[in-house]
Amino acid sequence: MSIDSLTALVRTLPDFPKPGIQFRDITTLLADGAGLRELVDHMAAIARPLDPDLIVGVEARGFILAAALAHALGKGFVPVRKAGKLPGRTVGIDYVLEYGADRLELHEGQMPQGARVVLVDDLIATGGTARAAAQLLREQGASVLMALFAVDLPDLGGRQMLEEDGVATASIMAFAGH
User: What is the pLDDT of residues 152-166, one digit of tens each?
Assistant: First the structure.
């Protein structure tokens, strides 16, 4: 399956979550067995040479891809969740989104010092969530080898912002516009 075939499996929902946004919904790709396998295979081909210790997924669709990637690479998976979703003691970071503010958390002590991680999410737009997740991981002693996304919206500048912060990035597909 080609990248164009994968791209065709991503549904665009206009005006979600607010007017003017073209939401790129990967759930249609996830529902296609061959498409999901191909997407994870592409992600694994990028991440495997980095030899990460852990794969970190960002809530919520990032969990799906990160867990599948962790399985493909034989690595562990660590979730980065929104505030109040993890049981027990957590560490977190507050950040600003294009349409509000939020907080990300992970379990206190779950990130081994010096752990080499690949950060995974379904999509990068403005980069605020990925930047916050990378900062949180670094504050916990991890080395973020790369942020890996299924979809990039390059017109919103998130990938460039992450790279300026010293986080290598890669994506499988890109869509112009918002």
Answer: 999 999 999 999 999
Q: What is the DSSP string of 15-67?
A: T-SSTT-EEEETHHHHTSHHHHHHHHHHHHHHHGGG--SEEEEETTHHHHHHH
Q: Is residue 127 part of a domain?
A: yes
Pick from 91, 85, 172, 86: which is nearest to 132 by CA?
91
Q: Which of 37, 98, 139, 163 is catalytic?
A: 98
State yes or no: is 98 an active-site residue: yes
Closest Cα to residue 107, out of 86, 83, 123? 86
CA distances from 22 to 35, 121, 154 (A): 22, 18, 13
Q: 58: domain range?
A: 51-174
Instruction: Count the domains in the chain.
Output: 1
Tell me which of 61, 81, 131, 159 is the catalytic residue. Answer: 61
Sign of the CA dihedral running 163, 104, 79, 128: negative
Instruction: Look up 139 and say whether it is catalytic.
Output: no
Full-model pTM: 0.95
- Angstrom distance (rounded) from CA 3 to CA 20: 26
